[in-house]
Amino acid sequence: MLFALPALNDNYIWLYQRENLPLIIVDLPETDKLFAWLDKQNATVEAVLLTHEHEDHIQGVSALKNVIFCWLRVCFHR
To answer: Which is nearest to 16 in space by CA: 8, 7, 26?
Structure first.
């Protein structure tokens, strides 16, 4: 299931969740809403996929790395 979690003023954190498997996060503009959602859903994170290097897609990565260990896959489009 793909879920769009609203982030910042005009962006989303895309969450790809498969049954009985950890979550994959696509782009991470912020973490406050993500951490609240993870706690509520009792979900674990497998990986983060970054689609490009704009600040509004990556600024939550540092905060996530301080809290959760997961694979980080960076796919920058230039």
So the answer is: 26
Amino acid sitting at position 22: P
Query: Locate tokens 């696509």: which residue?
Result: 26
How crowded is the C-beta side of 63, counted as CA atoms within 13 Å? 11
DSSP 25-58: EE--S-SHHHHHHHHHHT--EEEEEE----HHHH
What pLDDT, in 10s, does the model give residues 21-54?
999 988 888 888 999 999 999 888 888 888 777 7
- Can you say how many angstroms the Cα of residue 38 is from the centroid of all Cα atoms in its chain? 10
